What does this fold into?
Amino acid sequence: MTLSRRLAAEAIGTAFLLAAIVGSGIMAARLSGANEGVALLANTLVTGLALMTLILTFAPVSGAHLNPVVTLLEAWQGKMPWRDAPSYVAAQVIGACAGVAAVDVMFGLPAFSAATQVKSGWAQLWSEFIAAFGLIGVIVGCSRRRPAATPFAVAAYIVAACWFTSSSSFANPAATLARALSNTFTGIRPADVAGFVVAQIAGTGCAAVVFDWLFQPAGKFDLSARHESAADAGSEMLP
It folds into this structure.
């Protein structure tokens, strides 16, 4: 698949992901009667469903990263050339911002407006570290052992993490930046974006090391298992 097609897939996919996140947040806030719990539930369910369908749709074209930390993970694991990573990240950021603008206009709002939701402090940063760490763990584990289940597992994790993390699990630098440009239910104050992105990248780096060790490639795992089995068999034959 040509690079231009892969980048287009990443941009379009990320645009629709952000449209789902921000759009469902706006709709949920308007229909929930100021009940933030109901609004968050609706927002997270829509986000998970959209993410699952987008991964299934665009994975055959670009791998459906839709997230710069996933692109960094893929490059680090040697699944894509490092030279393509900057283009992927740029396409994701552009797509994310385009998705926010499209959905804001759809709801009669300015295309871009600085968000005012404060998300600062060490608790929020730790939350984003954990959110990204868990996301990468799910991706590595499923892609190596049950690749067909990866889209469903990733979507389920994001829905769950939106509830068990205090930051509501952004876990995506492109989405974080774009959500700072929409002063709606899912926004984040621009001043808090840099801290979130650093925490997400740190969580990704730690998870890549830990889960790469934990879920060794199938060939390596199977080879060591065969060696252990052979050793055990040999020991049983000794007097």
